[in-house]
Amino acid sequence: MTLPFLCDRKLFDQLPQAALLLDLQGLVLAANSQACHLLQTDETALLGRHADNATGFSVLAQSCPLEDVVQQRAGRRSVEVEGRGSGLPLVVELTPLLDDCGQCVALLESFREAPVIHEMATRLERKQAILQTEMERSRALVNSIADGIYTVDTSMRITAFSRSLERMTGYNEEEVLGAHCRDVLQTNVCDTDCPLRWTLENEKPIQNCRASLGSRRGDSVPAFISSDLLRDSDGNVSGCIGIVRDRTEVEKLKQRLGDRLSFSDFVGKSKSMIELFERADTVAATDATVLIQGESGTGKEIMARAIHYRSGRRKKSFVRVNCAALTDSLLESELFGHDKGAFTGAIRDKPGRFELADGGTLFLDEIGDTSVALQAKLLRALQEREFERVGGVRTIKIDVRVIAATNKDLRKEVAVGNFREDLYYRLCVVPLHLPPLRERKEDVPLLVEAFIEKFNARGERIQEVSTRAMALMMAYDWPGNVRELENAIEHAYVTSTSGRIERCFLPTVLQGVVGSASSDEESSGGGGRGELLQVLERCRWQKKAAAHQLGISRTTLWRRMKELGLT
Prior knowledge:
By secondary structure, this protein is α/β, with parallel strands linked by helices. Helices cover 41% and strands 20% of the residues. The chain contains 27 helices and 21 strands. Strand 8 (206-214) and strand 9 form a beta hairpin. Helix 25 (529-538) crosses helix 26. It is elongated, with a radius of gyration of 44 Å.
């Protein structure tokens, strides 16, 4: 067959791309070897057939550009989705063939594979396969971790739920996806201190928030919950991740230990504290009366409780009485009880603290503040193990271990006649002295760390203490002792804005301790008359506000005001 408008068949076959020669109706007049190879047929089978039928991918079948190409005498390009047989995308081009008068007499349709698109598609498929593999690996890694892991979107709806969390809660991932996390986990902090919600609102992580999870089984799972943000590829917050650490075994261990309260509530490695622990541990195994002496804030009540819970009386009551908080008559009624009608307002019989502590331990705090008259009645109760209620005549027998505590020097009180000598020796069977914090400064860093851990249980805010802040706390003499130190750390915990305790976040009384030239400040550990007076005036003599600013209890403030003549 002759090819009109083509001088040589060889030139047609040597075109770099597959090509068909079409008439103005789109019928195939000729096909070069590349076209036959691509279409996997011979030229004879193509001749006389319409191009869209012959090829199966011609643009003529889509938008019929034939007339436009003939009229406009311009080429048109298009990309097919895929070609016959190969499945590859193709680039198709229609070119008008013109005679000497410029009239279109035929069309040249050329097409070629689009390898760039194919390569991109292949690379995308490969990346998708790698991504799927990595996702499966990550999921397997998450599911192998003992801690439960879940993620939520910004609306607090669950987007992932690990296998460990499934075991903790009894819920499967499929049934909780899309559910609000509070409806699934049902923690006791959902409505108050949800760590994930706090992290989303403040864009800061939280470590080890104490919580209890509700499970499908109806039981409660004690846990620590940590949280951190999730971000998308543009850096925008897309959700939050929660990590749940089951502390059931820890709680079971505590339960097995029962009430065996050790001296773990005390923090200290100093020689004086170690010797104190050893002596208290020895006396706890006996029923001997103990007198605990030490300044306010040294932990006298904690020591009394530790002795009780390590004794054979630990299953019975530990009853506390603050002897300094009541008047003499009220204290007598509180200790020994009263019968109906004993005094105005005594409308019924009331047992006293001695009766309530029968079989257990009675802790008489601030015993040095009792009157000499009441001391005589206490002595009889201790010696005879019996007493009568106020207004009563019946003698009541009791089996009580007494632990007394005072911040006074009872020897001096005996010498000046403020305390009965016989009661002193009756109480001081085993004396224990709690050293003030200024005498065990090496324990300050340990105490600071313990208090930070305690306050961080609400939601971690403090990660470290600056060197200057620690040096300041080591230089201060802590007249309020451990209680004052705890108040100072809580003050810094609340006011800190940097995630660490800086000097500026400590109470005012500590910030002025270094470089103070006042001799009375030096003698009172940075809390002398001048500074105390300034704080009181600044707080308009409101004792509660002044005590808070000083980082001490109101009792300690009252005592220091009395000592300095400010009452």
